[in-house]
Structure formats: structure tokens, C-alpha cells
Design brief:
Blueprint: H1 2-18, E1 30-34, H2 38-53, E2 58-62, H3 68-73, E3 79-84, H4 85-98, E4 101-106, E5 112-118, H5 120-124, H6 131-136, E6 150-154, H7 163-169, E7 174-178, H8 182-195, E8 200-205, H9 209-212, E9 215-217, E10 238-243, H10 246-249, H11 251-259, H12 264-275, H13 281-291, H14 293-300
Parallel strand pairs: 1-2, 6-7, 6-8
Antiparallel strand pairs: 3-10, 4-10, 5-8, 5-9
Bound molecules: trimethylamine oxide (TMO).
């Protein structure tokens, strides 16, 4: 036994002194920020469990989804698994310009985040998905809270900041009301469905919602950089952001991270396990990994 321990130490020492490429990951925990929509939470746990399978230690912290890029840049947290172009490109780019953060991987998924309605809404307002038709139907979306104006139910305030700006730029007869949580958005759609009431709200794809409520995005003027009167990107990216110090501190984990790439169906399924099946995000991650060994095992090996 003694002999064997000696050999192991010898091997470890050799690795450190002869080849930086073989350097071991730091034993410090990799800190993964958790946001407020289901696929991001499940994916964070999937990536965390992949790291743990390599022997890394992992910690999760709740984080604001805009200021997180500054936190990654400074190395306070170490990655963010779902950088959505529509909601977060501006904050991500601002942090990249300051330095300390980069895209470690790009998911296969093509994303869209924008004003959206379930199909029964179109029966009441047949000119949809055109934004001008929506505007003419604004009164159908009025609530006691919004008076004469239609209600656009936005997501939590840390997602997209540009809804008020777009309402003003296009002179829309809508008032923006932000939901407190993603769950509040789904509860409102379910309530509107029971009474066949028109509703327009923030939604995104990939998400579980598309399998439950067929619907469409409102077509605003096509996205252009810097345009205040335009929609969000209709074919947006989804990236993984990482702290610049990560490759040096956890080379093994970082190497795996650069291979991670999920597609639309996989991400929608992560959300479904939580929002439809009611699993805890951590259990959803475990279940997803059991069902999809062929997807993630090659990234780890
Ligand atoms: C950031 N999100 C995916 C909820 O639009």
C-alpha cells in the first residue's frame, strides 16, 4: 500500500512539473449562477453534474440575469450556460468590452424572445401576427390596471428592458406590465385559455410552452442593431459565457464546457420536466442526463 501511495505522488508531481497541459483542476468550487427560467436552472445543474463527474466541486448561486456578466467578468461566478441574444446580448457585450469574459461555446439552439400570443387570440384579432393589426386590436387587451390601453404582459424586469422603449418608438396603444416570475406568465395564459380571452405576453423559444399552447410571435419591424422600433432577433444565438480565468484554473472542466451544445428540443425538454412534470430542477437534470447519456457522455470522455 505504501508503495502504491508513493507511486501516485510521483505521478502527480511529474504531471505538475513536466507538463502544464496535464495540470489538475483547482479544488475550489466552480460557481454557477442560477436565473429565473426553468431551462437555465436545469441546464446549470446538468453542467454542474458533468463537472462533478470529473471530480470538480460545484456551487450554485442565484443571480440577476443582467448583472451576472459583470460578475462572470470579475470571476465572482464562473460561467453562465444560457446567454440569450434577445435579452442579454447588450449586457454580455458590455462586459466583454471591459474584459474578463468570453463565449466558451455556442449552442445549436436558435432562439427567439418576443411578444407572443396563443392561437385563440388570433381568432379575435385576425390581422395578427402583424404588429399594426395588434395595435388596432389594443382595446381587446385592456385590463383594469391598464385602462384604455392594451396590456402587454412582460417578463420579470431583469429580462428585457426594451419593451417600454418599443411601445414609445412605435406609438403602441399598450402598457407594459411586468410579471413577477415566469410561473406568473404561465398562470395568466392558463387563465386566459379558460375564458378564451385574448392575451399578448413575453414568451420565448425553445420553451415548454410551444408544446402546450400553439401560438405565434408578433411580427414587428425586423431586428436591426440599435433599432428602438424593431422586434428582437428572430433567429437569435444561445451561448455559454465563461470567465477568462476558467481555462487556467479548471482546465479539465473548461475543456468539457467548450464541447457543450444543446439544441432546441433538448432545451424545451429541460423546461418541460420542471414546468409540466413538476420536478425540482436538480431532479430534472438527473432525469434528463439518464435519458440522454448519448448526448453528454461524449463531451465528458
Ligand atoms: C431570458 N428568457 C429566455 C427568459 O427570455
Amino acid at each position: 500500500m505504501k508503495h502504491r501511495a508513493f507511486l501516485l505522488i510521483g505521478v502527480a508531481t511529474m504531471a505538475i512539473t513536466t507538463s502544464p497541459a496535464l495540470a489538475a483542476d483547482s479544488s475550489d468550487p466552480i460557481i454557477i449562477p442560477i436565473h429565473n427560467w426553468s431551462s437555465q436552472i436545469v441546464m446549470s445543474h446538468i453542467v454542474g453534474q458533468m463537472f462533478e463527474s470529473l471530480g470538480n466541486s460545484v456551487e450554485f448561486v442565484s443571480a440577476d440575469s443582467q448583472s451576472v456578466y459583470e460578475a462572470v467578468r470579475l470571476g465572482d461566478v464562473h460561467l453562465q450556460v444560457e446567454v440569450w441574444e434577445g435579452a442579454f446580448a447588450a449586457s454580455f457585450d458590455a462586459a466583454r468590452e471591459r474584459g474578463g469574459i468570453h463565449a466558451a461555446a455556442v449552442h445549436d439552439a436558435v432562439t427567439r424572445e418576443d411578444w407572443w400570443y396563443p392561437t385563440w387570440t388570433k381568432e379575435a384579432c385576425p390581422g395578427l401576427p402583424d404588429w399594426q393589426a395588434l395595435n388596432e386590436c389594443a382595446a381587446m387587451f385592456a385590463t383594469p390596471e391598464t385602462g384604455d390601453r392594451g396590456r402587454f404582459l412582460g417578463g420579470p424586469v431583469d429580462w428585457l428592458k426594451n419593451d417600454h422603449i418599443r411601445v414609445e418608438a412605435l406609438d403602441l396603444n399598450f402598457a407594459v406590465v411586468n410579471a413577477g416570475s415566469a410561473a406568473a406568465l404561465w398562470a395568466e395564459v392558463a387563465a386566459a385559455e379558460r375564458t378564451n380571452t385574448p392575451i399578448v405576453l413575453f414568451n420565448w423559444t425553445p420553451n415548454f410552452a410551444e408544446a402546450v399552447w400553439p401560438g405565434e410571435f408578433v411580427e414587428f419591424p425586423a431586428w436591426e442593431e440599435g433599432c428602438k422600433a424593431c422586434g428582437n432577433p428572430a433567429d437569435g444565438y444561445l451561448k455559454i459565457a465563461a470567465w477568462d480565468g476558467m481555462p487556467e484554473k479548471w482546465p479539465g472542466a473548461y475543456d468539457v464546457l467548450t464541447r457543450v451544445s444543446f439544441n432546441n428540443a433538448q432545451i424545451a425538454e429541460m423546461a418541460r420536466l420542471v414546468d409540466i412534470e413538476g420536478l425540482d430542477p436538480e431532479d430534472a437534470a438527473t432525469a434528463w442526463m439518464e435519458e440522454n447519456q448519448d448526448v453528454w457522455q461524449p463531451w465528458v470522455n
